[in-house]
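Title: Request for sanity check on Glycoside hydrolase family 43 prediction

Description:
We are preparing a figure and want to confirm that the structure record we downloaded matches what your pipeline produces today. Could someone re-run it with the sequence below and paste the raw structure tokens into this thread? We only need the token string, no images.
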Amino acid sequence: MYDDYPLSMHDFSLHDPFMLADRRTGLYYLYNANYFQYRSAEHGFGKSVVLYTSPDLKHFSEPVSVFDVIDRPVGAWYDDCDSPWAPEVHEWQGRYWMFVTLHARRDKPVRPEAGPDWYRRDRTVGEKRGVFVLVADTPAGPFVPVHPQSPTTPTGTMALDGTLAVDSDGSPWMIYAHEWVQLFDGTMEAIRLDASDLSVGRSEPSHLWAASEGVWHESDGDAPQGGWHGDFDSDRALRLIAEGSGGYVTDGPYAIRTPSGALVCLWTSYSKGQYILAQAISESGRVLGPWKQLAPLDYRDAGHAMVFRAFDGQSMLLMHTNMTRKDSNGRELVSHGIIYNVEATDGGMVLGPHRRDIDGIDNPDNDI
């Protein structure tokens, strides 16, 4: 019965995974950037988005490539300087739309646009980054860029991890991260999309929040409560930001409605050097907020989460582990997909039991 699905989730590496439960076909579609696990031409030499399918979340197919950055059209804005990042697929008006982060080499490196003086002086940025929207008629692809000549996010912005968020009036928006490497204090931003073509932006970017606004920073002692808001030169900032220290990361937004109609956005950052799964809430239910930061959901070096509803009705949260962990010999641990039951409440998302029966991880505190 399961000859076409010989794998379990723990058999393969996952990084920024995304699960689509497609009731039309009765299958789960698990999308992932190919981080060189499969080096054959069939899998794009590690420069592709791959798809695993499953009838039951326990048995998965071998991966197939559904978008390859090496085989790109003439005049494409992006190139093959890095693997695609953070693919996610949404059904919208009868078609399947992939949001994916692509990259391009710069002819000449540029300086960051914001941050402490030493950061702007000493760091250069050698790549461009943007969120592209691809489309297919089925969740199995192949996915084709609608406008390969330009990302949907602003071309001058180091943008990544775009996600679809539907506003309280039903209009589609993209929430995305404005990369910390350009700003030092990364931000979350949003643009309204064309309802008939999700690859087209219909508004200027709107600022939602900054990474340093995460509520855990006060206890960690690495940012003031409420964020820097561009003030990197005050006496307090100079005391807290040591020259050469890292910036503040925004990563992996994903928006979910609560029973009352509020909008919760999962997002990921760092706390004391490890990945942290955070959340924010727009009690108005609008993408533009105002947004309030909530207590983090998980501190165990796991993040870039999304939520899907299984065919039995259970809401599940999927993210990846081992962003920074190493083994006893100092080798990086493989990133795996990890799944929890989850509930959307009017106070935010609440993690339920860990689903070892699906992800095969014995101990989330020490995944190997």
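Thanks, this matches our download. The chain has a mean pLDDT of 92.
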